[in-house]
Design brief:
- The structure is a single chain.
- Helix content is 85%, strand content 0%.
Amino acid sequence: MYKNVANGMHKMYIAELGAVICTAITLIPIIGTIIGGIGALVFGILMIIALYGVGKEVEDCRKAFILMIIGVVIGLLTGIPVIGKVLSLASEVVSFLVIYLVCTSLGKLVAEAGDGATAALGEKVWKLHFIATVCNLILQVLSWIPVIKVLAAVLAVVVAIFAIVVCCFYISFLNKGSKVLSV
């Protein structure tokens, strides 16, 4: 019934998992940065392709696809002096909106397919991602204040660890949801 959506959701799962692995690889000096960066680009493109495909059948995923493209453009502009910091905040909000739209729309389909637990996981993911986004936004703004910059950096590490956990839940949601919808 939802085979194309399931296939797209599985591609999203692979893209997210690959992106996490690439992030870990970038921690290796020099060669890891190159390999991880190339991999992140490849998996980012896969995510865009997957969202485009799912968006043909799920309206909110089409919106998520458009927002992801906007997010890429904003991301490219964050290096511009003066407005770069504000664009970085906008990029954070756009990233949250993509996760929200994916989790809510695909969560509804998974619930309709009879898997309430996986649908609830999708809801948990976007709510936890919202918390991480708000914390990141606050910490980014606080990092602009010289006196608080060090404290903000330390707290950013805690929020980053929290965000990794949320990402793992998101990967699990995409994996489980794709299996449910492929039946």
